């Protein structure tokens, strides 16, 4: 009887986990999907009213594809889309002029569009969009609309996407970066939890499991690196540059600390994998404790209380393992150093100054100050105000001008 009950509980837990993942995906992407649908309807309506007697299918397609990117990349995605559409429509029109049959015409237009896109060193999304535009141009020429109509449709669709992404619903880049940080912390916590479980097992299975766990962090770390790169380009190419980019720059520094924390966690896992069986079992509560600390941060990243609790528990876990002895072997010394590095990076990520971290580890400072975490501005250009020169003409202020750091939820560091 216990067997069926255990299987039922396991199935229920799996169903709850899947339902939780689906709910998280829907909550993260539903609004962007609704925006894309609204943009498609608006682009279709405008293009259909502007140019009579044709089917403006390029307009909604352009709007949806341009908005089908992460919030910080939707503007540049619209420009890439337009490049591909222009190449594809031009290649399709040329193929229609010289083509002898529908199949050969479509093949020639598609081939020419992709060759031109590759020749100009376009990205994969541009190459695919160029091919799709050429296919649509050669297939739907029966409606009699000239090529210029399709170009206007594409311009209208991309224009609607730019209005949605840059003016009406600009990307909350800090919030996007914060979600990526939460995912990375969750991944690190899961990796350390799995390593702690493997440390308590016997034989070569334990070592193999720990090695397999080291790859679990490659995805979150790659996502963090991509986020840092895209955040800088987003500041240059979006309406964020009109306002104060300092919140994004501050969050970029936090991501850099998180990358260092991930590297420390990897170092801890690799050093524990090289230790003997008895020493591994002693490290189970240490590694598990650090995993719990990262879980606390991931559960409520915007809470000062959560950061204080994480710092306190990280210190308690590190002191439980101790500083090590001079006669320890190299692997044991490396493991002590790894535990200290993880605790240090957790405190730095929580906002404690580096000078204070060293004093805390040496026991000279018992109650370090954990600052309030940075707030998340609702709109990227909320602090932007138009400025007039002495002739009464409008001119934007330089990037980063205007009041700084007033958006924070607490006192400055």
Automatic annotation (TrEMBL):
Presence of keyword Transport: no
InterPro entries hit by this protein: Memb_transporter_dom
Residue ranges of every copy of the Integral membrane bound transporter domain listed in the record: 43-164
Subcellular location: Membrane
Region listing for Disordered, in residue ranges: 392-413
Transmembrane segments: 31-51, 104-120, 125-142, 154-175
UniProt KW Zinc keyword: no
Membrane topology: Multi-pass membrane protein
Listed Basic residues bias regions: 403-413
Keywords assigned: Membrane, Transmembrane, Transmembrane helix
Name of the protein this chain belongs to: FUSC family protein
Record lineage: Bacteria, Bacillati, Actinomycetota, Actinomycetes, Streptosporangiales
């Amino acid at each position: 009887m216990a067997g069926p009950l255990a299987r039922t509980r396991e199935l229920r837990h799996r169903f709850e986990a899947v339902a939780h993942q689906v709910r998280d995906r829907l909550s993260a992407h539903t609004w962007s999907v609704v925006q894309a649908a609204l943009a498609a309807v608006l682009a279709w309506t405008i293009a259909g009213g502007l140019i009579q007697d044709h089917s403006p299918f390029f307009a909604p397609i352009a709007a949806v594809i341009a908005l089908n990117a992460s919030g910080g990349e939707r503007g540049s995605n619209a420009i890439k889309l337009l490049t591909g559409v222009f190449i594809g429509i031009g290649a399709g029109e040329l193929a229609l002029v010289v083509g002898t049959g529908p199949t050969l015409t479509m093949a020639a237009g598609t081939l020419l569009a992709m060759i031109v896109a590759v020749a100009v060193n376009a990205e994969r999304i541009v190459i695919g969009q160029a091919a799709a535009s050429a296919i649509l141009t050669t297939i739907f020429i029966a409606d009699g609309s000239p090529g210029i109509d399709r170009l206007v449709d594409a311009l209208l669709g991309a224009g609607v996407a730019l209005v949605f992404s840059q003016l009406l619903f600009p990307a909350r880049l800090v919030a996007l970066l914060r979600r990526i940080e939460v995912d990375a912390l969750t991944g690190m916590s899961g990796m350390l939890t799995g390593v702690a479980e493997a440390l308590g097992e016997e034989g070569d299975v334990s070592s193999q499991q720990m090695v397999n766990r080291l790859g679990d962090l490659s995805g979150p770390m790659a996502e963090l690196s991509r986020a840092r790169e895209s955040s800088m380009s987003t500041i240059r190419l979006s309406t964020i540059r009109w306002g104060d980019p300092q919140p994004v720059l501050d969050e970029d520094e936090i991501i850099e600390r998180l990358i260092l924390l991930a590297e420390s966690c990897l170092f801890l896992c690799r050093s524990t994998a090289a230790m003997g069986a008895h020493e591994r079992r002693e490290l189970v509560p240490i590694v598990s404790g650090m995993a719990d600390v990262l879980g606390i941060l991931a559960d409520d990243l915007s809470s000062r209380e959560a950061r204080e609790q994480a710092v306190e528990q990280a210190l308690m876990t590190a002191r439980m393992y101790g500083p090590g002895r001079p006669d320890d072997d190299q692997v044991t010394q490396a493991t002590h150093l790894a535990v200290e590095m993880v605790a240090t990076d957790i405190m730095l990520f929580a906002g404690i100054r580096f000078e204070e971290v060293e004093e805390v580890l040496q026991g000279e400072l018992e109650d370090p100050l954990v600052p309030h975490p940075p707030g998340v501005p609702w709109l990227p250009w909320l602090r932007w105000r138009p400025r007039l020169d002495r002739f009464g003409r409008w001119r934007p202020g330089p990037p980063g001008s205007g009041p700084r750091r007033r958006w924070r939820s607490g006192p400055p560091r």
